[in-house]
Every structure is written in structure tokens, then in C-alpha cells.
Design a protein that fits this description.
- By secondary structure, the chain is α/β, with parallel strands linked by helices.
- It has ten helices and 14 strands.
- It has helices at 26-41, 55-60, 70-80, 92-95, 99-108, 132-142, 161-170, 173-180, 196-199, 288-306; strands at residues 2-4, 14-18, 45-52, 84-89, 113-119, 145-149, 153-154, 157-158, 185-189, 205-208, 219-227, 231-240, 252-257, 270-280.
- The relative contact order is 0.12.
């Protein structure tokens, strides 16, 4: 997949889709798959257009956390089969374009668009007036084909990044997984912790929270931990500030790998922590003995959940 950070001048026919694509959930995947399918039918190049920064970040003048990093989004698009990704620089000039000017000057004149695939909730151009109805009017005027994709529903409501984020913040991991199409995860290199867990024969691995990612609700989870994209283990993971053993107030992710060999050395290795089910809130216990007694109960419940 080719990636452009400015608007290229293309000569080949293209089929285009516009969107934030701030997290490749089942709604985005459906749209991108339709983009690739239609480009095959039109014998054209598939082009996904997103914005950098996202419009809400531009207007709020700050970076916002998202479901996926840029690299993950690129990887997902490439796997789906998108030919070109255009990360359109979003600035005062672009934000002032009318929908017609955007379509004529960028999509048609520069990107050689022959068809546009978009969601029924599409919004582009000044004040977001480039909606599905406007797209159909412009397609008649300029002679390009359109494919309007209905929103993907989950429990009778539209799937969206904001809805998934709300589920993660509420600890509703099963709902988030259904809308994402995969279990949400955090990742990073294993770093040294305080070493308290080893004293209670419950060794854990720690990662610092990656920048720019949505952090699930503080608490304890049933998880799957993948090490270096090869080995996987069942685990109990805590997201939070560990109030019983630390007063630093820094959020981290700490996981006890239930079926990992005790003598394994994972320091420096990269792990992914997939969140399957929320168990309980993080709380401050009277002492570490009470804390690890509760963790042992969490481990037993997780073993039962996984059938270990």
C-alpha cells in the first residue's frame, strides 16, 4: 500500500472512500472491504482518505487518544487490500472547502475519482455539509458513481469509535470486542515492577501505558497475553495505579501469566495484553497480604473462565 502525506496527482482511475478511520472496527472494515470490491469491479485503484490531524483535534488544538495507533490502522488497511492511503493535511484552508470544491478540486481533478464509497453518515467539507444526500447530488453533476453503505449495527445501534471507547471506559469488554471484531489490547515492552508480587509467589509482568491509546477502565481483567507475537498465556491483569503498593499515581498494566513457566525471563520482550472480561474495580486493601489473597481468588476465577 502506498501512503501519501499530501494530495498526489494521480493518472489512473480511482475509487475513493473518505473517513476518520480512527480505529478499524467492524464498521470501518465493512466500508474498506466495499471500497476494495468496487475498485476491482471498476478496474481502478482503491484510495482511502483520512485526515491528519483529525478535524476534532484540529479545532480543539490537542491530541486525543484513539482505539488504534497510526501504524495499526495502516496495517489493517493494507491487510484489507487498500492500494493507496492519503493522509490529507487538515488545516484552515482544507476546513474552508465547500463539499463541491473538495470533490471537484481534490477527488476528481487530483485523484482522478470515478466512484466514491462512503458511509451513510459521511461528513466532509466546510461545517461537515458533505453528507450522503450532497454526495448523490454531486455524483449526478460530475458523473461519478456512488455507493452509500449503511451503518453497521450492534444491539440495534450504530457501531462507532465513540461507542466502543465508552464501552472500554465502562469495562464492557465483551461489547467492545463485538464491535471491534477483535479483543482490545494494549502493548509494550516488559518493564521492571516493584517486585512485591514475587514475594507472594505470584510473579507478574508490567508494561507502561502506550501513548495515544484508549485505556480501559481501571480494574482487574481476565486477559490473554501474547509474547513477541509467538507464545500466548492466560492471565489476570490489573489496569491502574496499584494503590495498595504504590503512591506514585502512574497508570500501568500488570499481568500475572497463569500458565507461563515460573523461570521465564520476559524483561525487554514485547507483549500484547488482550482484554476479555472485566472482573472487579481496583481498590486499596488494608495490606499487601489482603491484596494478594484477593488476587489468588481472581486467578481461580480466571482459571475457571478459561477451563484451565
Amino acid at each position: 500500500m502506498k501512503i501519501y502525506k499530501e494530495i498526489p496527482k494521480l493518472k489512473e482511475d480511482t475509487v475513493i472512500s473518505i473517513g476518520k478511520f480512527d480505529g478499524v472496527h467492524i464498521g470501518h472494515a465493512t466500508l474498506l472491504e466495499e471500497l476494495v470490491l468496487m475498485s476491482d469491479l471498476e478496474d481502478a485503484t482503491s484510495v482511502a482518505i483520512t485526515f491528519n490531524p483529525f478535524p476534532e483535534e484540529f479545532f480543539q488544538k490537542k491530541s486525543l487518544p484513539h482505539l488504534n495507533t497510526r501504524g495499526e490502522i495502516i496495517s489493517e488497511m493494507d491487510e484489507i487490500g487498500v492500494d493507496i492511503l492519503v493522509e490529507l493535511p487538515f488545516d484552515e484552508e482544507i476546513s474552508s472547502y465547500s463539499p463541491e470544491k473538495f470533490v471537484k478540486e481534490i477527488l476528481i481533478n487530483k485523484l482522478h475519482m470515478k466512484a466514491l464509497v462512503c458511509g451513510s453518515d459521511v461528513s466532509f467539507g466546510k461545517d461537515g455539509k458533505g453528507n450522503a444526500k450532497e454526495v448523490e447530488k454531486l455524483s449526478e453533476k460530475y458523473g461519478f458513481n456512488t455507493e452509500i453503505i449503511d451503518k453497521v449495527l450492534y444491539n440495534d445501534n450504530a457501531v462507532s469509535s465513540s461507542r466502543i471507547i465508552k464501552c472500554l471506559q465502562d469495562g464492557k469488554m465483551e461489547d467492545a470486542s463485538e464491535m471491534l471484531g477483535y479483543d482490545y489490547y494494549l502493548y509494550g515492552p516488559v518493564v521492571k515492577g516493584a517486585g512485591v508480587a514475587h514475594k507472594f509467589n505470584i510473579p507478574t509482568v508490567n508494561i507502561n501505558v502506550p501513548q495515544g491509546r484508549i485505556i480501559p477502565k481501571n480494574g482487574v481483567y481476565m486477559t490473554i497475553v501474547e509474547v513477541d507475537d509467538t507464545d500466548t498465556y492466560h492471565a489476570v491483569s490489573n489496569v491502574g495505579v496499584r494503590p495498595t503498593v504504590s503512591d506514585e499515581g502512574m497508570v500501568n498494566v500488570e499481568s500475572h501469566l497463569i500458565d507461563c513457566p515460573v523461570d521465564s525471563d520476559l524483561y525487554g520482550k514485547r507483549i500484547r495484553v488482550y482484554f476479555l472480561k472485566y472482573i472487579r474495580e481496583e481498590k486499596k486493601f488494608a495490606d499487601v497480604a489482603e491484596l494478594f489473597s484477593q488476587i489468588e481468588n481472581d486467578i481461580e476465577g480466571t482459571k475457571e473462565f478459561f477451563g484451565i
